[in-house]
Amino acid sequence: MKITYITNLYPPSIIGGAEIVVEKITKKLAKEHEIIVITNNSKNEEKIENKIKFYKIKTNIYPVKNQLTESTILKPLWHAIDLFNINAYKEIKKILKKENPDIIHIHNYKGLSPLAFKAAKDLKIPLVFTAHDYSSICIRANLLNGKGEICENPRIPCKIYNKIQKFLIQDKPDIVTAPSGFVMKQLENAGLFSDARKIVLPNPVETETQPVEKSYDTLDILFVGSLSRHKGPDILIRAFRELENDNLKLHILGKGPDEDELRKLAEGDDRIIFHGFLSGDELMGMYQRANVTVVPSICYDNSPIVIYESLMNSTPVIASRIGGIPELVRDGYNGFLFEPGSVVELSRILKKISEDPSILKGLERNAYESSQKYSIEDHVKRLEEIYRGLL
């Protein structure tokens, strides 16, 4: 098969887990199929890497990878251009006409315009869409308001934006997938993709690893993610500082807009270490060393890659009971769940394991075993079945 992936980011450009998932999938599929990737860039570029043909296209006043650092003054303009980006539409359609793929699979599309859906359907090519977040129903993609709280009642500009976007993408995909049932439910509640077949397909991980033996001389607690309030790192730091044990260390991996504030919050506690952004073997080494990974999100996380990566390295997960997280973390089986935002409850769990690390033994075994059902091989086979079904 000849398959075109449309994704706003592709490694080494990384903001979240979606682009990591797309890279894993495309590299596996490229061994048996012809793969084309259309992605966003600061300039137009065409090249072939690892048997994958890339079209990197410039579509807006700045590339989507700059979204976190660009001026807030420019962001409304960027979103307005993206919504009606005729140039992006024409460029994507031109590439699709040239390549004439059997299947088009859209992942995160902000920066490549919702008109990418129209470009695919204009050519009557079967279309699959994967919802990695809430971009289809929220301009911020995380269902949070400007205060960083769950958005119960969107502002009028947001409602107008969502209505226009719904008109542009509604009824375009033949099949919609999402890594969690929670996200799929949000799309259904918003009245999106009513005519499409819907499939919950969890994210994939490499399962060729072996169970990891842990040391308990020092309990290493790990946070991996964006240093942004909605991911809850401040909640973790506050909970950690409630504990007086000297045998604890908190490792914070990532970067983000709230890093300076978080460093101030951790000031004076030598047990808290900021490592910056890590990837590849360095990141995997941190998971293997860690005794637990904490995912303290206060937003409706979809299906965080950090949980999959932690489980595959035999590392139990302590996480907020929110969004799609409880579909991956079973309380008392491969980790613990706590009420989102509760410093007290999280601190209590951390205190419990610090006083009796033997609790972790069974959780580690279950963490590794639960990761095995998310193998990249099974994921790719399922995708091939979906694609062939459309053909």
Provide the number of structural domains.
2
User: Would you tell me the structural class of the helices and strands?
Assistant: alpha/beta
End-to-end CA span = 10 Å
Residue share in helices? 25-40%
The SSE string, one letter per element, is EHEEEHHEHEHEHEEHEHEHEHEEHHH
Name the strands of the widest sheet in spatial order.
3-4-2-1-5-6-7-8
Label the CATH architecture of the largest domain.
Answer: 3-Layer(aba) Sandwich
Verbal overview:
The protein has 391 residues and is of the alpha/beta class. The chain has two domains: 2-204 and 375-390, Rossmann fold, CATH 3.40.50; 219-373, Glycogen Phosphorylase B (Rossmann fold, 3-Layer(aba) Sandwich), CATH 3.40.50. It is built from 13 helices and 14 strands. Strand 5 (103-106), helix 4 and strand 6 form a beta-alpha-beta unit. Helix 3 (86-99) runs parallel beside helix 4 and helix 10 crosses helix 12 (359-371). The longest helix has 15 residues, at 376-390.
